[in-house]
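Ticket #4471: structure output looks truncated?

Reporter: J.K.
Steps to reproduce: submitted the chain below (95 residues) through the standard prediction queue, then opened the result file.
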Amino acid sequence: MSSGQESVFSEYEAESSQTSKLLRKFKETPFVPVGMAGFAAVVGYGLYKLKHRGNMKMSLHLIHMRVAAQGFVVGAITCGVLYSMLREYVIKPKE
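Returned output as attached by the reporter:
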């Protein structure tokens, strides 16, 4: 790599830390972390219920868990897109 590219990367890394980048992304798209948390909650609940599934086959239980987790994430992303559209087009910020 040339020294010019190294200096650009070092400036970019020095400009903001990982935490500040993460917080900035959460402010820009607030429903993504909600979707991630919901996904983790559904998977955690599914793993907990794995012990008490009764006569249900393992593959069927995993399919149900996957569909629930994906549904939560798709719902959160849809809400995020609607929120962004509302914020951008209906409630116009002062320019």
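Triage note (M.O.): checked the attachment and the full token line is present. The two ends are 42 Å apart (CA to CA).
Status: closed, working as intended.
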